[in-house]
Amino acid sequence: MRIAVFKGSAQERFAQSRRWHTVGAVTDTDIIDQLTSGVAQAAIAPLMSSFNLFRNPRFLKLGLSTQIFTTPELDTLASFGINPRQTALKDAFDQGLDIIKRNGVFDRINSQYLTLRID
User: Does pTM surpass 0.70?
Assistant: First the structure.
């Protein structure tokens, strides 16, 4: 069995640490193509990417069953990429996140727009 994973992802490292055969993907479409063509028989993707897959009719036609992995190797924190030359932007971003976490806005956004809890 081959598992479709995003190249360089925590999911790829997780699968390879278990000596599973993996097929690398760059986009959600790559994963769907690999599953549709039979190159891969299963996929492991980050939760947010999974949401994109579940909105894609081609993916839904595959009729795959799903499972959320709850293992320490896959419990990674989401992150934002900021240009290292923009240190002021990072500081402002961190301060903004701090403020909306303290005043409850972050929790309201999380509850209203996301189907999972993000800390």
Answer: no
